[in-house]
Amino acid sequence: MWIPGGIPHSAKATWNAHLNYLFIEPGAAALPEKCCMLAISPLIKELVGRLTREDINFEAESHAGRLTRVTLDELVTMPQQKLSLPVSTHPKIRAMADALVSQPEDRSTFKVWAKRLALSERSLARLMLRETGLTFGRWRQQLHLIVALRELASCITTGSASGRVLMICSSEKRFFMGMSSCGL
Predict the structure, then answer these.
(1) First to last CA, the chain
(2) Using an 8 Å Cβ cutoff, are 32 and 181 in contact?
(3) Which strand ranges, in their side-by-side order, compose the sheet holding 18-24?
(4) Are 24 and 30 in contact (CB under 8 A)?
């Protein structure tokens, strides 16, 4: 998720999140002026992971400096993604969707949802995929991303976002980029 400077926000990570942070100076890359989702290539993910292991005080011509330039060059080429949340008219999927939309902070596991809906995990997995085209984890990830973007657009402090997320936030005229990866 790209969040340009000047937008009040915060983020929380789940207990099983793996976070990496990368600071980018303002003007160092021609990134969008509005909040949006950026598609992140495996190359960028690996570069960000690699850069987080470098000392923050590196020379521009050092190995870390070259990796940073490549990362920024690649980052600005990443397309913006449109987010959608497919919702089914199937009563069980609809009930789960309504509950999670009204309480996005609900971190109940897939197993718990299957039990609540009186389905086996396998039946719920097949039903979810058939009705929405997404796995439960991917669907919930989309929900959290949409909720986070909506809250940011409304200048409301965000709660949490889950899944693989690229977040670039501003603090004191510096940009923050974090890669979150958690198992759903």
Answers:
(1) 18
(2) no
(3) 18-24, 174-181, 165-171
(4) no
72-87: pLDDT as tens digits: 999 999 888 777 788 8
* 179 φ/ψ angles, rounded to the nearest 5 degrees: -110, 120
Neighbouring C-alpha atoms within 13 Å toward the C-beta of 84:
7
Q: Based on the number of CB atoms within 10 Å of its own CB, is 177 exposed (0-12), middle (13-18) or buried (19 or more)?
A: buried
Token reading at 166: 């690229």
**Integer Rg of the chain from CA:** 18
**CA dist., res. 181 & res. 128, Å (int):** 22
Query: Which one-letter amino acid corresponds to residue 150?
Result: R
Residues 6+ apart with CB under 8 A from 51: 22, 64, 67, 68, 71
Question: Per the confidence metrics, is the pTM higher than 0.70?
Answer: no
